[in-house]
Amino acid sequence: MDAFEAMLTRRSTRKLAQVVPSKEFIEQVVEAGRHAPSGGNSQTTHFLVITNPAVLTKLAKLVQEAFAQMEEAPGMYKSLRNSISAAKKGFYVFHYGAPVLIVTANKRGYGNALADSACALENMMIAANALDLGSCWINQLHWLDENPQVRTYLETLGLEEDETITGGLILGYAAEGVLERTALPRTGNPVTWVE
Ligand SMILES: Cc1cc2nc3c(=O)[nH]c(=O)nc-3n(C[C@H](O)[C@H](O)[C@H](O)COP(=O)(O)O)c2cc1C
Q1: What is the 3-state secondary structure (H, E, C) of 97-136?
Q2: E strands of the chain, at which residues?
Q3: For residue 121, which atom of ligand 1 is closest to its CA?
Q4: Which of 38, 43, 91, 136 could lock onto 116 through a cystine, CB 3.0 to 4.6 A?
């Protein structure tokens, strides 16, 4: 699959099989992330690659508890409202039970923290597609960056005190066996040509 095909057929895959892909495949995806550009070549995006099922279960429980304690507010971002509402009902699993979660973090106070990590995440999602792996950006840990329970636990896993959680993704084989690769219609993202 060439680069254009990998980009244009990438879709978010949330239903993933309970099978951890080979370490070689996961490493290839992470390498694609590590090779993303970074502001001033800072290379400060930190990748926490979590495949331990007990750790993922514990993290999901902490996230569920954190959202259950939050209140929906008018004007709140829709996905955040949905997370809070599902958590309060007690059936919220932020990572959809995926076998691999890659959390990205970057230096707190660094102006390109989010931009650099977004480049890395997109590289990883495209690489995953090229390897026939499904992936989906998972943003809840970014939203919970300041949550003491979530932070403390992530720090026991390797998150540094001076790092802010910038995002993450899930990774694995499509539960249905075949990846959905039909692009959603592009109705937004306007383009203005000035020639
Ligand atoms: C910054 C960002 C945050 C996202 N956060 C989540 C998320 O937390 N959970 C989720 O299921 N999908 C998340 N997504 C995936 C989007 O919902 C998805 O990309 C969008 O619906 C378009 O679908 P596609 O990726 O299949 O083209 C996120 C995507 C981006 C770019």
Answers
A1: CCCEEEEEEEECCCCCHHHHHHHHHHHHHHHHHHCCCEEE
A2: 46-50, 100-107, 134-137, 163-172
A3: 31
A4: 38
pLDDT for residue 91 is more than 90: no
How many other C-beta atoms lie within 10 A of the C-beta of residue 2?
7
State the pTM of this model: 0.97
Residue closest by Cα to atom 9 of ligand 1:
138
Residue with CA nearest ligand 1 atom 17: 12
Tell me the per-residue pLDDT of 143-155, one tens digit each, with 9 for 90 and over.
999 999 999 999 9
pLDDT tens digits, residue range 95-154? Answer: 999 999 999 999 999 999 999 999 999 999 999 999 999 999 999 999 999 999 999 999
Q: Which atom of ligand 1 is nearest to the CA of 183?
A: 27
Nearest CA to ligand 1 atom 20: 12
- CA 137 to ligand 1 centroid distance, Å: 5
Say what percent of the chain tops pLDDT 90. 96
Nearest CA to ligand 1 atom 14: 137
- The topology (CATH level 3) of 3-172 is NADH Oxidase (3.40.109)
